[in-house]
């Protein structure tokens, strides 16, 4: 039997410059407070990579080039027929100047090796190191929204 499933497509694109990565320090009123990578919703009918590049530009002022697909972070809630998919990219080539008044929070170039010591959401802290490993990853979490617990979860390096 066919089900009506709500699927939300998101992107995140970390921008790396040598041993540093560009992060957004989001204030609590924006949701997901702490340090996080640029990203957001994919607008229909844009492609995933165009969505990732657009989000980086809107949030940082930088135009990214040569995006490398790093992996998928997926969350499902069968009780509400909901699937949330974040397609993750890494860009090491970019041009432009950082925005003086970024819309999502203060921008900071942070050493990759020190970034996980900053305040960040647990799901981003889990995902962050995977951007800098060889290959791709898949993070999957099946969630019981009623009980607010994970039913099943996995992190795979592919």
Automatic annotation (TrEMBL):
Name the UniProt record assigns to this protein: 8-oxo-dGTP diphosphatase
Cofactors named for this entry: Mg(2+)
One Pfam assignment: NUDIX
Keyword entries, A-Z: Hydrolase, Magnesium, Metal-binding
Record-stated family: Belongs to the Nudix hydrolase family.
PANTHER family given in the database record: 7,8-DIHYDRO-8-OXOGUANINE TRIPHOSPHATASE, OXIDIZED PURINE NUCLEOSIDE TRIPHOSPHATE HYDROLASE
Domain Nudix hydrolase, chain residue ranges per copy: 1-132
SUPFAM superfamilies in the cross-refs: Nudix
Gene3D superfamilies given in the database record: Nucleoside Triphosphate Pyrophosphohydrolase
């Amino acid at each position: 039997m066919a089900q009506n499933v709500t699927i939300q497509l998101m992107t995140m694109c970390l921008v790396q410059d040598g041993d540093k990565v560009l992060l957004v320090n989001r204030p609590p009123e924006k949701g997901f407070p702490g340090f996080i990578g640029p990203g957001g919703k994919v607008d229909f009918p844009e492609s995933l990579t165009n969505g990732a590049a657009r989000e980086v530009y809107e949030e940082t002022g930088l135009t990214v080039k040569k995006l490398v697909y790093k992996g998928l972070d997926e969350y499902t809630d069968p009780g509400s027929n909901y699937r949330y998919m974040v397609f993750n990219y890494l860009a090491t080539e970019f041009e432009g100047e950082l925005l003086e008044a970024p819309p999502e929070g203060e921008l900071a170039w942070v050493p990759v090796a020190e970034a996980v010591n900053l305040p960040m959401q647990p799901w981003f802290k889990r995902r962050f190191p995977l951007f800098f490993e060889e290959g791709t990853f898949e993070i999957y979490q099946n969630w019981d929204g009623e009980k607010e617990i994970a039913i099943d979860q996995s992190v795979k390096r592919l």
